Amino acid sequence: MGERRLCVVPDVVRKYRELGAQLLMQSGAGVSAHLGDDMFADVRFAASAGEVFAAADVVLCVQPPRTESIAAMKPGSVLLGLLQPWSSEERVRLFMERGITAFAMELLPRISRAQSMDILSSQGAVAGYECALIAADHSPKFFPMLTYAAGTIRPAKVLVIGAGVAGLQAIATARRIGAMVEAYDVRPETREQVESLGAKFIDTGVAAAGSGGYARELTDEEKAKQAERLARAVAQCDALITTAALPGRPAPRIIGADMIARMKPGAVVVDMAADTGGNVEGTVAGDKVWINDVLVIGPTHIPSRMPVHASEMLAKNLFNFISPFIRDGALALDWEDEVISGSCLTHAGEIRHPGVKQALGL
Amino acid sequence: MGERRLCVVPDVVRKYRELGAQLLMQSGAGVSAHLGDDMFADVRFAASAGEVFAAADVVLCVQPPRTESIAAMKPGSVLLGLLQPWSSEERVRLFMERGITAFAMELLPRISRAQSMDILSSQGAVAGYECALIAADHSPKFFPMLTYAAGTIRPAKVLVIGAGVAGLQAIATARRIGAMVEAYDVRPETREQVESLGAKFIDTGVAAAGSGGYARELTDEEKAKQAERLARAVAQCDALITTAALPGRPAPRIIGADMIARMKPGAVVVDMAADTGGNVEGTVAGDKVWINDVLVIGPTHIPSRMPVHASEMLAKNLFNFISPFIRDGALALDWEDEVISGSCLTHAGEIRHPGVKQALGL
Amino acid sequence: MTSNWFVNMAYFVVAVVFILGLKAMASPVSARRGIVWAGFAMVGATVVTFFTPGLHNVGLMVLAIVLGGGVAWYSGKIVKMTDMPQMVAIYNGMGGGAAAGIAAIELVRGVPHDGVTSTLLALGAIIGAVAFSGSCVAFAKLQGLMTKAIRLRAQNNVNFFLTLATFGVGLTVAYADAPGGFEIFLFFALALALGVVLVMPIGGADMPVVISLLNAFTGLAVGFKGFVIGNPALIVAGIVVGASGMLLTQLMAKAMNRPIKNIIFAPLTGAAAEGGEAVEGTMRELSAMDAAALMRYGQKVIIVPGYGMAVAGAQHKVWEMAQLLEEGGVEVAFAIHPIAGRMPGHMNVLLAEAGVPYDKIFDLEEINADFAQADVALVIGANDVVNPVARTDKSSPIYGMPILNADLAQNVIVVKRGKGAGYSGIENALFYKDNCRMLYGSAQEAIGQVIQHVKALEV
Amino acid sequence: MTSNWFVNMAYFVVAVVFILGLKAMASPVSARRGIVWAGFAMVGATVVTFFTPGLHNVGLMVLAIVLGGGVAWYSGKIVKMTDMPQMVAIYNGMGGGAAAGIAAIELVRGVPHDGVTSTLLALGAIIGAVAFSGSCVAFAKLQGLMTKAIRLRAQNNVNFFLTLATFGVGLTVAYADAPGGFEIFLFFALALALGVVLVMPIGGADMPVVISLLNAFTGLAVGFKGFVIGNPALIVAGIVVGASGMLLTQLMAKAMNRPIKNIIFAPLTGAAAEGGEAVEGTMRELSAMDAAALMRYGQKVIIVPGYGMAVAGAQHKVWEMAQLLEEGGVEVAFAIHPIAGRMPGHMNVLLAEAGVPYDKIFDLEEINADFAQADVALVIGANDVVNPVARTDKSSPIYGMPILNADLAQNVIVVKRGKGAGYSGIENALFYKDNCRMLYGSAQEAIGQVIQHVKALEV
Amino acid sequence: MDGFTALYIFMLAAFTGYEVISRVPVILHTPLMSGSNFVHGVVLIGAMVALGHADPEDPVQLAIGFVAVFLGAANAAGGYIVTERMLGMFKAGGRKQGGAQ
Amino acid sequence: MDGFTALYIFMLAAFTGYEVISRVPVILHTPLMSGSNFVHGVVLIGAMVALGHADPEDPVQLAIGFVAVFLGAANAAGGYIVTERMLGMFKAGGRKQGGAQ
Ligand SMILES: NC(=O)c1ccc[n+]([C@@H]2O[C@H](COP(=O)([O-])OP(=O)(O)OC[C@H]3O[C@@H](n4cnc5c(N)ncnc54)[C@H](OP(=O)(O)O)[C@@H]3O)[C@@H](O)[C@H]2O)c1
Ligand SMILES: NC(=O)c1ccc[n+]([C@@H]2O[C@H](COP(=O)([O-])OP(=O)(O)OC[C@H]3O[C@@H](n4cnc5c(N)ncnc54)[C@H](OP(=O)(O)O)[C@@H]3O)[C@@H](O)[C@H]2O)c1
Ligand SMILES: NC(=O)c1ccc[n+]([C@@H]2O[C@H](COP(=O)([O-])OP(=O)(O)OC[C@H]3O[C@@H](n4cnc5c(N)ncnc54)[C@H](O)[C@@H]3O)[C@@H](O)[C@H]2O)c1
Ligand SMILES: NC(=O)c1ccc[n+]([C@@H]2O[C@H](COP(=O)([O-])OP(=O)(O)OC[C@H]3O[C@@H](n4cnc5c(N)ncnc54)[C@H](O)[C@@H]3O)[C@@H](O)[C@H]2O)c1
């Protein structure tokens, strides 16, 4: 299953129109999100994606466009979406060459005001919910406690690793279904957050709060300590959901093969980080594999499993980002605005984000 | 996915042993339920199923055995399990010919005392839970209400048709996940039961309570009335779960193609009755099909999606049924017992259940 | 009235302490303290009285105190807890007797009084004597010395004329300048007879209310005597007890669901033939307040939810109540019967929704042995799953089904709306057991009320 | 003491009705009824008094009543609701003045009294006069005629000696057989000065407590006067008011979190320099009882849950409270800010867990316009999401974020544990607003208390 | 009335006053203060008796008596109207049907 | 003490008695009844005074007085011990830490 989300939904189109913007969309682009062309009023449809790229002043996208598409863009035009800024030097170069003003929503500053534009957060919520469902659906056991005529089934134990946006949502969802949930994160402030959802926090004695609400990478010693304590919790759980991520880097490898080997037969692992390398040793992105008697699932494109609402959220985020600068159908960016300047990847042929610049060595 | 359940689990094996019974099991039979041979103590393992059938005095099974297996059984031996008594005249004849005492758990009288032996109930609970998860997992929408930084997502509407054991469990599970649930059943007493789970009951004005806790078939007029009111509810829901069944008959066809046509794009239908013909027009048993923009799922072997707990429940049910009659390792059936006599399909070459006898025309 | 300043001041303090003591006794937290205070005050009052100027017969007095106090103290000490009510009755009667005795002395001495005082004197004497003999009858009934409620033929007429005669003779005697010995004797004989006749027809189950009423009477009698002999401490203590006793009688009657007038007059009119004598094998009700008190002061409560809890959607309230009890130090557990409700796991879903932690939820096998140790089994909208018939009656459709042994708990409280049967449609033998009480009402409301009362018990 | 039986009996009834009236006024349900009863009793008492044997100066009396009553009635009728407290103060002062006046007449007439009565006469006169002048000062302060709390240098000494002098002169005058005009004048002058000096240094914010205290004083003065002129109705009404007034003063002080001694003595010792004068822009606390009353008697309450509710796990309690309010006819809605809590949908999960129906939950856009119509916005463990700084302060990290307009509600109640900041770590301007009160405590407990009080308001 | 009797009356009245209002909700503090302020307006009848027994010839007595009655009447009348108005604002909200789920 | 004073004392004492116990929980009904039974045992002092003023020569008076004191003492002593025992059983359970989730 690939990308099924769309970067506008009919409601949001209406709002763009109210701001005087004109919309051009590839015909059939919304089908996979159950949004037929007929559901969009006041939108011009283009037969091909290329036509859209060539004509637009501002391009909204979900995933980064392919090289041909970027090449087709008007110089000086604005590109907006999840551009995976860390993943491809070539793409960033292309943006610079074409003089494209590219906003990578992954770079959005994590300040309160910008939360309504935060695609990582909104899609993280979707992903957390979905991963909990995947775990429940694949588990050979009931999640909730259940007393039936011939006995009682004890509730399943679910372990969630990484209590960011997605992790918390996974915790909440697993709890709702009825599981007993434990969770773990390196950032110490997550303890209270985990507990506020009625789950138990696993204390490993390792704390690693980074900046901007993200986590930092751990030292080897810390990793060993963490692993020690975690291994025990992993061995006891019926389902394991891992959501740990580090911005701009491959996902941390937290669950080793040895830990998997100690898990109960029939246990389920859902590795939400499969896309970026996986938190679990042996995960295959986009596939399910049996390791001994443990099912390890490495779902990709998780928010696309719920395209209707994921698209709605994403579309609103993008709109909230760009709409303050649309006046009478024209775009006027305010470079003083910390949100704009902070999430800008390239502008006027230059790379604007110091972190990415350094990481890509440009 | 086929049958993954097993008719004993280690705990239950222990109880049989305590009663003095000897157990013989096909090697590897439990693998699909995550029960390796090594987990069973005090059990002899046979290399093939045939060996088991030939040697046993009492045979426990999940599904009805194949013809060869029945043929291999000792005359006068006892067979116990879900024997699908209504589905095959040939099999019943074979039982009679071989003089097998066959207990079909589907025929178990629905009295309070027998509830701990009721496989239909326990597996119905599993199925209801699973179907709700399947629906949630396949829905392109969130089930629960969710207020996020850029807006609010309203909870999904789930409609459950048939509020028997499975239906009620589906209602409870969907509610847990956060959906708004409506439900419908022909038996009027289900209204209170549905409401006791916090769901809304749809009143169509058709009541059809049958005997023994089951429903009776509806007249054409009733069907039309029911359909009218249901169609409206179906059109509004985001997910539809159908669980209606009639004992010993094909499942009632409740949702016609016209109703599906009126559903929202992206809606999901889970037809639990797919195995017995489906409550929904167009269901394909064991497959997912798109009808317009509606995904119709016809899962089969649903309890096998949760083999660990389903096996545990099933094994306990069977044990509760047969154990009162095991004394010092020998079976001594009490034909006065209404549970024994009521669930007996064939004994001593005769068919014992009048309903089946009549239905199969034997 | 003695004019001794010290004695009077002491009496004043005693009166204040009595009031404070009674107030303290009205709350579970301070009740112990209250009786101890009052006890000290009583000792003080007694000692101080010896300082009254012009007191004669001190030797006799001491003897009477030692004898009376000693006998009562000893008998009160050895009596079984279950026999307490009759002891209260008899002690109360003695108080009434003492009041009557004071009146008798005044009459015999022929002390002249003004009109008001004379009236109070007669009233006090009558009430005291009635309280005395009535309490003796109550004692005899509760002690089992008198087992039947005895109604005279023409009870109404007897009561009426006896009352009339008693008051007539009493007032005559009180207003007379120097009443004759026989009149005085007749007066008291009539008053004593009245007490007997009034209490005789009342059944044993209503006795606590009657005792409370007689107790209030004695208070009034004491208060009136206080006026007669001019002692404000007696007035205040007596009237305070009289007033609080009246209220208490009302509260008790309400808590027992027996309007006072039914208790006192039903036997007179003969309307309620059962007369309140507890019939074995009926369903008995209890109030939400009693349910709250039973649980709050228990050690262990096991809650048995059933389909009725689901119908009422009472799970949140039930859990709230359980938490309150736990805060009060009570151990609470939930016992789930395998087939409670209408689907497997019905109760689990609801309890989970309410937030009951899994470690408080036990299934039949885990908890059935614990009921015998539980002070209260609270059955909420469950029926078939606690029906002991399943153990005993072979002909019952639920025979052989394992049930929750709620009936083995010390007290069983059943919350249901009315006489509705369960799924299997059969009568429940549990409801008729001696240790079982019904709390009628939809579970949501009934438990809501219990919660309020549990809270009222915390201070 | 007049010996007219009819008048006395009437007074007795009046006293009883006053007590019943006060009792009724102590409960929201019957309060209206209570004042009306008391009103009838007062009219009755006044009329009956004209029947007192040997009454002179009836014309003058009627004139005084008509004038005094008329002026007070009119002024009481037209005054703004917000100015009520000072009216209570001034009327109370008048009552004190009347009591002092009665004493003055007795003194001037030189009626001889025994020791106790003389003492009570002096005490009543002093207390009445102090209540009079003190109340006048209180009135002046509240009316804004006197804006500063004025402390004399050596306030302590002045108070001490003035008190001493007043009592000295007072007792001398009262015990004297025929006190001279000047002594009497001096006595009252001193007493009046004492009232002024005592109340002067107390700040406006503490005035309600002071008025209540003066009110209790007046009650005592009236009671004492009752002893002096031998009128039990005055005694009973006065003392009952005195005692209940003392209790009420204590309750008020507690509700305002200002121990009485701080109010009365702080200005004396000069310890609390702020003197209670409400400083603009401080956080003000309120009690759970007040929170309950505000909501229970409101029409519409909007609840704003935040991360703190999640931390406290208070969702079940909050929903229970909401239900109670709804049962009382209050409209309750939940307002969820898009980023309340720590994950999208954090509040949804919790409210769903507690069983809050979806149709009571609104998001920012749906509900923000409704705050202006709400009587109470109850903010539970939320902080950043209701911080008005986001609207105004460009330099704030949350500037530009839409917030819930809780500050536009008539009253805002904020439940939080202490001074903890929210996620963004900044101060919240809402907490300093005039219409905002803090209810400190972990949400679970705080709301639990509110629930108890809401229940207490139901009868 | 002798001293002890007075003491008893005093004590009992104090108890009664205390108990009668011991469970008053905060919202009623001010109205109740005002109400009890009205109740001690009964001083009016004391003042009336005092004025009634004042020497009709002595202007000082008459003046004081007049003032006392005036003040007493003002206490009673003002106390009543103010309390009444406060409590008039005060209405117990009607009960609606509540329901959990 | 004159009739009206008596009436006032009566009225106030009745109010006090009523208010003081108006919120008693059911579980305390019997102990409180017993406790108030003890309190009216104060009749003992009345009986003592009566006996104390009885004519030492008149055996009837002495006998009645003796009985009255005896009964009064029994009321007081028995009332106390019984109440004390009842309330002794009565212990408010210790508070544990409660907690929701
Ligand atoms: N668990 C399953 O899978 C399943 C499935 C089908 C059948 N069953 C059967 O269901 C029964 C379950 O037993 P149970 O004890 O849970 O329930 P039950 O025996 O059906 O009894 C329920 C009781 O709740 C009371 N009730 C109803 N509404 C109420 C309300 N709003 N508030 C308070 N009380 C209320 C009713 O009495 P009032 O009317 O007087 O209030 C009734 O007696 C068994 O007989 C079992 O065989 C179970
Ligand atoms: N929704 C999201 O996805 C998300 C994700 C990350 C960050 N955030 C941020 O989180 C914030 C959410 O705002 P908010 O208003 O919900 O919370 P908040 O601003 O963090 O404020 C929480 C308040 O609750 C109080 N509190 C904590 N524990 C309590 C307890 N047990 N009982 C009572 N009060 C308690 C704290 O004060 P005391 O310490 O004084 O009690 C604190 O002021 C926003 O700043 C948002 O940007 C949101
Ligand atoms: N203030 C804002 O506007 C805002 C907006 C969105 C998110 N946030 C905050 O930022 C936090 C992180 O956001 P996110 O979910 O996008 O993060 P993320 O997806 O980058 O990471 C997911 C989680 O994995 C954890 N993790 C990293 N390494 C780990 C390891 N070795 N072991 C265990 N856990 C590890 C991180 O701590 C994080 O909680 C959120 O919890 C949220 O509080 C703030
Ligand atoms: N007393 C007992 O021991 C016992 C044990 C198990 C079940 N039961 C009762 O029996 C009932 C049915 O059991 P089940 O779940 O095995 O039944 P089932 O699986 O045979 O049927 C499922 C549901 O479909 C409904 N249905 C049939 N035709 C329909 C139509 N046209 N439209 C809508 N709904 C239709 C039925 O009413 C039933 O509720 C249960 O609800 C339970 O109360 C009783």
Spell out the helices and strands of chain E N to C.
HHHH
Structural class of chain C: alpha/beta
> Strand share of the residues of chain C?
5-15%
Cα-atom radius of gyration of chain E: 20 Å
* Most extensive interface between two protein chains, with residue counts: C-F, 128 and 89 residues
- What's the structural domain tally of chain C? 2
Assembly classification: heterohexamer
Overall geometry of chain E comes to flat
Associated small molecules: NADP nicotinamide-adenine-dinucleotide phosphate, nicotinamide-adenine-dinucleotide
Mean pLDDT of chain C: 85
Largest sheet of chain E: none
Which consecutive residue ranges of chain C, at least 5 long each, have pLDDT under 50?
267-280
Helix content of chain E: 55-70%
- How many helices of chain C does DSSP assign? 17
Keywords (chains E, F): Cell inner membrane, Cell membrane, Membrane, NAD, NADP, Oxidoreductase, Translocase, Transmembrane, Transmembrane helix
Main location (chains E, F): membrane
Domain NAD(P) transhydrogenase alpha subunit C-terminal (chains E, F): 7-91
GO cellular component, one term (chains E, F): plasma membrane
